[in-house]
Design brief:
By secondary structure, the chain is an alpha/beta fold. Helix content is 52%, strand content 10%. Strand 4, helix 6 and strand 5 form a beta-alpha-beta unit. Helix 5 crosses helix 19 and helix 18 crosses helix 21. The structure holds arginine (ARG). Arginine (ARG) binds next to helix 13 and strand 9.
Length: 563
Amino acid sequence: MAKINYLRYIDEKLNFEGAETGLFANSALISQNQLADYTVPCFKFAKALRKSPVQIADILVKCFDGDTTFESVTVVNGYLNFKVNKANFVKDVLSDVLSAEHYGSSKFGEGKTICLDYSSINIAKPFHIGHLSTTVIGAALARVYKYLGYEVVSINHLGDWGTQFGKLISAFKRWGNKELIEQGGVREMLKIYVRFHNEAEKDESMNDEARAYFKKIEDGCQEELELFHWFKDLTLKEVGVIYDRLNIEFDSYDGESFFNDKMDVIIDELEDKGLMTVSQGAKVVDLTDYNMPPCLIVKADGATLYATRDLAAAEYRKNTYNFEKCLYVVAYQQNLHFQQIFKVMELMKKDYANKVEHVAFGMVSLENVGSLSTRHGNVVFLEDVLDKCQEKASEIINAKSPDLENKEEVARMVGTGAVVFSALINSRIKDIVFSYDKVLSFEGESAPYMQYTYARANSVMNKAGEGSEFTVPPTLVENEFELVKAIAQLPDSLMNLIEKNEPSFLTRQLLEIAKLYNKFYFECRIIGEEENVKNFRLALTKATKKVLKDGLALLGIEVPEKM
Ligand code: ARG
């Protein structure tokens, strides 16, 4: 068992003079340079300590006088540089990884609850490629928070309210066929919905009819309400299949309609607190002072809005789950919406106003496909993307390893993994152009590359055996050391991940580990080496396998034992 966690060790030593350095979470890095294995940039503390980085570094370095944990601690231009004793470090880290149940997991978040609003699909609308990011980023965050000891509530805030349901009912009454919809699900609903739109463009009265139908749902008329629930059940059944494929579960499907009877209190409170103003018959919260358009709360016709329901939802979540943080994994197109409702919460002096956060992400488009619009029926279903990726994975595997057992199972893991990985490899705010060739490439930054590396490590273990107790050989090469450093960084990448709600921190770290392992695999012989070198390299292989498997599982990617 490792005696120390190096980062925490530095952190604790540096927490002096009442300065909250908080290094452990985000300051020290294992740099990939020759000067240091860990480095602490002292400019980070300049403000708190009211001293220059150079002065701070000169003071801090004295904390390590006579300390034999590090080979050297030196100061260079306001940076504190640590060089570890390589053999000790490697031994500590590997022992730690091999003895841990799940390396990097902790009780850090014990007793705290995170509400995670993600995927949040719309009823009777396609689960399309645009929902990929919210779904897999949200699920990855949920897993990582749990791994770090938090209680997580996964919420699918369904879009199950609004005039579009009036349109759908109107369309169904005109051209709908019960059996067809029962079988074809959302695709069939979409067909009549699109037809409705096209025809309503010529005949405006159809929209009035749709509004009247929606009013009937609101008023609880039986026939309309039954249709609405039927659409909803069919949609949920359909998306359930995709969630199963992605291994995702929600704790709550309380969507927009759930909040219908929970908005009055919010509206009253806004009135009581003097925050509501009337503008052209509508009730709004004026946000001019904050350079934002007004937040619309109640329309002139009395209808409530998306924002009203979100305000009610936040209040409900606070009362029900008492969250430490409530995260909304939603595309950046909704930036303004979240800025507005968060500002309204602040103006209402809600104690949770600083605990809500919009985790925004970029758009996904498909290579060689034009712009996508549900209303025109021009959409790419996520299900089709998953199927196609799986088919292509199957072709590749058939060509590469025709004798592999359970090829279909491997193709499933590879195909699904490729789609998931594509949404987690780059910082979430970047737009993604999805390309089948790219996500399925065995060489690039892809799931198959990671899975192949895992299977490679596994095959090494199968050929060479488990190996016995290891010691660090005197021949330790630079690449082995770098691989261990990358593994040692994993727990910190998880801490950084939750700080920024950025899953790519983990994905990148795992990719780095995989690259270094492959380099090691080609440069360092295992079988045929003398016993202590072989045992050490097997321990390194085993550690790599373990962190890849656990890390990829956090992202929602499975690994095959053979590939
Ligand atoms: N259903 C919405 C959409 O597809 C996303 C809902 C996000 N969550 C929320 N609480 N507003 O755009």
